[in-house]
């Protein structure tokens, strides 16, 4: 579920800017780090912590838009790619300096206990992840599909020139999308940070997972990205359980390479005419 | 020189070697390859594994192995578009890293390999070797890309479709560049192994890739000395900023971001005078005779997009020395038809022939090399037209050449078309200027919803009731 949040933020940023935001993984880690700082050191309770992390990372997303995406809108997509890779390195090194290389655990959302639900033992944290993650996905869906703001965001995503022609302030909506993507990255970072600990160099791994989810699910398709992310989560869980982590990851990458060979436009294809 | 200075200079050479290889793929072809760092690691591991038995010869062999691996990896990824290419190379790099960590019996796992370096070059010898290779690579590369090859690479990078219709085989270019870039990465890795005497999985990690990308962007991704400058900064900056511990990497990333934003040609680009824009090609005064097929013929060609027949059962033929006009309302399939002929789209059924040769399955660049040139709808047409004519095609497909032209330019275009006919070229034009088309074309073909509704002499076609209703907007 947390992967789904990572992929969702990634695909929102992708659609808005028309280019891969490579800093997205770093933002996820930053979200975890902010959760560590605010929750662990400042001691905020979980109920305030999550919104606080989302807000801080939303601001980081907006900053990303202004630093590395909007100024490069007229350049080839590779320029944005490189700029966001540099940004990811900035975040990573910044965290390295402030936190140190050792991993930290982000505070949990709902305590660490387990309880029984209809005879099944359920951990409180996984359940909280499911509820919070699911809630955020539904909220984003509502925003995109049911509000005027969301309609405009989709308009900007599908055709920037046309959106500008009908009077939508494109830059503002790109910024908004990146802010939203940042907020989702923050939530994902906090949730993943408790489960897998926060360490500065994890960003590229999250990034790769989100990238794969989006490529598998159809470039730029929001439901496709969610499905892709859930698929990766399920795949990792079961294959790691069967053959171990290393082989599971290897199988995933080989699978992606094979997929790209057979279907150069992703599993479900992509909307005609879209170019990243 | 002290041993420490030799170490630093060698390291600069190694980084620059990796960067020069990366410039080939990323700088000149604009393909975002994210496996270069991992390929350096492959070179290092290959050297470490082979050195105990082969000694010095492990290094050239490592270069060959890495180059071959790059070739193997490039083969299936050639067709991929930018973002999928990046993903595929990223997945490849992740795989190499996993192999380095997990196949302990070969790679030594997380501890890596040590104690293989006794027979590899050291010190000044290694420095000389690295810099000789680097100088050779830089000289060869700047010599190669200075001329026509450089222009072709630029076209391929900035307008891949136009490049294909001019007969440039993008896939082959990428293959060669990727293999050569991989071989240089292998050389860098081999030297790195010799320099350090240790190879560990970090050599294949993403950090190496990021460093490589940043040094090339910082120095200048196309400038001949860009990689060397970037490498010098990468190695010297941490030495200068010793007091700041790891902060130099942060500073480095900030500098890279600033360079991407404000100096797209890199730092080397700031020092060298800005290259004058290429002189626009001019339409030649004399049109030499073109060689090639005599007839271009389409037979029952059909193309569907989703549920819509964009082109259905169209048959037509075009001879050398003939001008045929394609008219029809917007969305009637005119441009799709041109795309089918030049191989940018694949026909679902039907045959397209140049004389007896069936070309409907051929890639765009091969069709172009057989003498079918084309232009695209764009604001200015004289430069693309001149570019296509420079390839001396037997057949020309022109997509709205008169759009956006003033009256005088239209007359020039008309004269040019007559000259093309006299020089034995076959021309297929799509345009909305029915008066111009009637004056220059020998025949007009009117399409409506993908179907030929009328064909014949201009006056005949214009008098046709269907054409008047569907296209000319006159009630029948």
Write a structural description.
The complex is a heterodimer of chains A (276) and B (476). Chain A is mostly helical and 276 residues long. Chain A has one domain (2-201). Helix content of chain A is 74%, strand content 3%. Chain A has eleven helices and two strands, in the order ααααββααααααα. In chain A, a hairpin with a 2-residue loop joins β1 and β2. In chain A, α3 (46-69) crosses α8 and α9 (203-217) packs across α10 (222-243). Chain B folds into two domains: 3-271, ABC transporter involved in vitamin B12 uptake, BtuC (Orthogonal Bundle); 295-470, P-loop containing nucleotide triphosphate hydrolases (Rossmann fold, 3-Layer(aba) Sandwich). In chain B, the strands form three sheets. Chain B has a six-stranded mixed sheet, with helices on both faces. In chain B, strands 4-3-6-7 form a four-stranded antiparallel sheet, with helices on one face. Chain B has a two-stranded antiparallel ribbon with strand order 1-2. In chain B, a hairpin with a 2-residue loop joins β3 and β4 (308-319). Chain B is elongated. In chain B, 49% of the residues are buried.
Largest interface, counted by CB within 8 Å of the partner chain's CB: A-B, 45 and 44 residues
H-E string of chain A: HHHHEEHHHHHHH
Instruction: Give the CA-based shape of chain B.
Output: elongated
Rg of chain A, alpha carbons? 18 Å
Count every beta strand of chain B, where a strand is a DSSP E run of 2 or more residues: 12
Give the N-to-C terminal Cα separation of chain A. Answer: 26 Å
Radius of gyration of chain B (Å)? 28 Å
Question: Unreliable segments of chain B (pLDDT under 50, ≥5 consecutive)?
Answer: none
Q: Care to count the β-strands of chain A? A: 2
Q: Low-confidence parts of chain A, pLDDT < 50 over ≥5 residues? A: 271-276
In the CATH hierarchy, the architecture of the largest domain in chain B is Orthogonal Bundle
Oligomer: heterodimer
Q: Which structural class best describes the helix and strand composition of chain A?
A: mainly alpha
Number of separate domains of chain A: 1
Provide the helix percentage of chain A. over 70%
């Amino acid at each position: 579920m947390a992967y789904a949040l990572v992929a969702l933020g990634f695909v929102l940023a992708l659609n808005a800017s028309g280019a891969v935001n490579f800093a997205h993984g770093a933002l996820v880690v930053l979200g975890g780090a902010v959760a560590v700082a605010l929750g662990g050191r400042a001691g905020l309770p979980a109920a305030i912590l999550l919104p606080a992390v989302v807000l801080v990372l939303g601001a980081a997303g907006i900053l990303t838009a202004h630093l590395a995406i909007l100024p490069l809108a007229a350049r080839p997509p590779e320029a944005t790619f490189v700029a966001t890779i540099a940004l990811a390195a900035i975040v990573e090194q910044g965290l390295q300096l402030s936190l140190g290389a050792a991993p930290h655990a982000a505070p949990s959302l709902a305590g660490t206990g387990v309880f029984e639900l209809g005879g099944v033992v359920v951990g409180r944290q996984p359940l909280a992840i499911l509820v919070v993650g699911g809630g955020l996905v539904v909220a984003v869906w509502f925003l995109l599909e049911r509000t005027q703001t969301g309609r405009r965001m989709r308009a900007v995503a599908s055709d920037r020139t046309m959106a500008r022609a009908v009077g939508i302030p494109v830059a503002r909506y790109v910024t908004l999308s990146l802010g939203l993507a940042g907020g989702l990255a923050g939530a994902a970072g906090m949730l993943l940070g408790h489960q897998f600990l926060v360490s500065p160099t994890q960003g590229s791994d999250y990034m790769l997972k989100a990238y794969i989810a989006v490529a598998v699910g159809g470039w730029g398709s929001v439901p496709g990205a969610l499905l892709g992310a859930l698929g990766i989560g399920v795949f990792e869980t079961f294959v790691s359980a069967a053959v171990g982590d290393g082989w599971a990851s290897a199988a995933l990458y080989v699978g992606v390479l094979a997929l790209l060979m057979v279907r150069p436009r992703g599993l479900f294809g992509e909307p005609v005419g879209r170019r990243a | 020189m002290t041993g420490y200075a030799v170490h630093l200079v060698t390291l600069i050479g190694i980084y620059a070697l990796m960067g020069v290889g990366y410039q080939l793929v990323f700088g000149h072809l604009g393909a975002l390859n994210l496996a270069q760092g991992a390929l350096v690691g492959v070179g290092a591991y290959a050297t470490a594994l082979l050195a105990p038995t082969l000694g010095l010869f492990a290094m050239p062999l490592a270069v060959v192995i890495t180059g071959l691996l790059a070739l193997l990896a490039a083969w299936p990824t050639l067709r991929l578009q930018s973002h999928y290419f990046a993903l595929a190379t990223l997945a490849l790099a992740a795989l190499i890293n996993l192999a380095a960590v997990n196949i302990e019996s070969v790679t030594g796992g997380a501890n890596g390999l040590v104690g293989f370096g006794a027979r590899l070059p050291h010190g000044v010898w290694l420095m000389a070797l690295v810099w000789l290779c680097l100088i050779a690579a830089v000289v060869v590369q700047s010599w190669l890309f200075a001329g026509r090859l450089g222009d072709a690479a630029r076209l391929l990078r900035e307008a891949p479709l136009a490049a294909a219709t001019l007969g440039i085989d993008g896939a082959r270019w990428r293959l060669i560049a990727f293999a050569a870039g991989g071989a240089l990465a292998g050389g860098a890795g081999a030297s790195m192994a010799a320099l350090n005497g240790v190879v560990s999985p970090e050599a294949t990690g993403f950090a190496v890739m990021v460093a490589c990308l940043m040094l090339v962007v910082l120095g200048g991704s196309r400038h001949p000395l860009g990689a060397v400058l970037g490498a010098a900064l990468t190695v010297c900056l941490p030495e200068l900023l010793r007091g700041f511990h790891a902060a130099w990497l942060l500073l480095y990333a900030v500098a890279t971001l600033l360079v991407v934003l404000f100096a797209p040609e890199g730092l080397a680009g700031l020092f060298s005078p800005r290259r004058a824009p290429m002189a626009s090609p001019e339409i030649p005064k004399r049109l030499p005779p073109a060689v090639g097929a005599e007839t271009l013929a389409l037979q029952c060609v059909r193309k569907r997009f989703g549920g819509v027949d964009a082109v259905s059962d169209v048959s037509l033929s075009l001879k050398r020395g003939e001008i045929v006009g394609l008219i029809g309302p917007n969305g009637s399939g005119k441009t799709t038809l041109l795309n089918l002929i030049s191989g940018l789209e694949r026909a679902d059924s039907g045959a397209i022939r140049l004389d007896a040769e069936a070309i409907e399955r051929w890639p765009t660049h091969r069709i172009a090399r057989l003498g079918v040139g084309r232009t695209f709808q764009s604001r200015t047409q004289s430069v693309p037209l001149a570019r296509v004519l420079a390839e001396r095609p037997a057949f020309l497909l022109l997509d709205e050449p008169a759009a956006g032209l003033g009256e005088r330019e239209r007359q020039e275009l008309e004269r040019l078309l007559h000259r093309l006919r006299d020089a034995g070229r076959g021309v297929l034009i799509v345009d909305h200027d029915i008066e111009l088309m009637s004056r220059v074309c020998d025949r007009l073909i009117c399409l409506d919803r993908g179907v030929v509704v009328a064909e014949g002499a201009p006056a005949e076609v214009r008098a046709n009731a269907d054409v008047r209703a569907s296209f000319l907007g006159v009630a029948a």
